[in-house]
Specification:
heterodimer; A: 121 residues; mainly beta; four-stranded antiparallel β-sheet; 11 strands; globular; B: 108 residues; three-stranded antiparallel β-sheet
Chain lengths: 121, 108
Amino acid sequence: GAVVSQHPSRVICKSGTSVKIECRSLDFQATTMFWYRQFPKQSLMLMATSNEGSKATYEQGVEKDKFLINHASLTLSTLTVTSAHPEDSSFYICSARRDTFRDRSSYNEQFFGPGTRLTVL
Amino acid sequence: AQRVTQPEKLLSVFKGAPVELKCNYSYSGSPELFWYVQYSRQRLQLLLRHISRESIKGFTADLNKGETSFHLKKPFAQEEDSAMYYCALQGGSEKLVFGKGTKLTVNP
């Protein structure tokens, strides 16, 4: 199968500190990973698209200096929440894109990590 | 603009009853539609996509371009189907746009 891990699964930090979240594709290479944010009882909102070896593409309204993304290898993307504040508290989910070949067709599929619960005090 | 609407936040049915989770979309081109499922304490996973026209765990979904809908159906719901279901759209890029989700509860 295609497994995506996230670390840590849960983090509590003080306001003003920075937090790094890792997203790894364990058994496949992913040139593209995605970072989502999910508020309680709400849907996943795409924050940015992370491309290996190049700058991330941020969605409108997402501060790139606040949410730093580094996709340094084909199996690892990191999201750093800088100078975190209580309003940054949320559930952060990553996904990794894998190309799949089936029935003589190819298509890409996103595999999701288990998420990271960030609480900023 | 790409938009996915799931009108029901909560849906409750009894075991063995038919279930339909509604999904409507807005997109000017030819979209790719997906249903994702999230079971309790588990990660989001793909249930089915319209291009594969598969039936997964008894669920089917047909893309209706006229009505811009992609409703998820199962003729006989099971208790293990209880989960959060998200409809998602992929337009011209790789990005997925998710609906707000429907929480399905199948009662014994």
